[in-house]
Amino acid sequence: MRLTKATDLALRIAMRLAVLDGQEPTTREVADAVAVPYSHAAKVVTRLRDLGVVEARRGRGGGLALTGRGRTGSLGRLVRELEGVGDVVGCEDDPPCPLRSACRLRGVLREAQEAFYATLDPVTVEDLVADPTGPVLLALAPPGPRPTG
């Protein structure tokens, strides 16, 4: 199983915000820090905002902040929400798999997927930014002063 690029980016953005202690960087600053295009980061930030993980304020003095849910909520729950519901394999894709009515693979892979999520369930973003990760995240292109005018 491989996470989508959007989920990977969402987790990196959440981790970056978790270590900034009250600083509220812009989406562009976060995109620069995690080395992704602004347009990708903006889409992911919108999704994180919709899930209640990030607060985003527009305009002068605006920025991004991780919510309490984003900081201490279950990583397994967050990844499930970001990845969406679905099987690891596409048994019903077009054309459908000819083995689907008698195959045991789908069930085994579903169990493996749930074991993956169960491993993430007790972990939080806050856990992910503990040493040695936190200092490395802080060293990434720190947010600088915002331009005025």
TrEMBL record:
Domain of life: Bacteria
Cofactor: [2Fe-2S] cluster
NCBIfam families assigned to the protein according to its UniProt record, in alphabetical order: rrf2_super (TIGR00738)
Record's protein name: Rrf2 family transcriptional regulator
GO CC term, one of those recorded: cytosol
Molecular-function annotations in GO: DNA binding; DNA-binding transcription factor activity
Key words of the record: DNA-binding
Database matches in InterPro entries: Tscrpt_reg_Rrf2 (IPR000944), WH-like_DNA-bd_sf (IPR036388), WH_DNA-bd_sf (IPR036390)
UniProt keyword annotation of Nuclease present: no
Statement: the UniProt record of this protein carries the keyword DNA-binding: yes
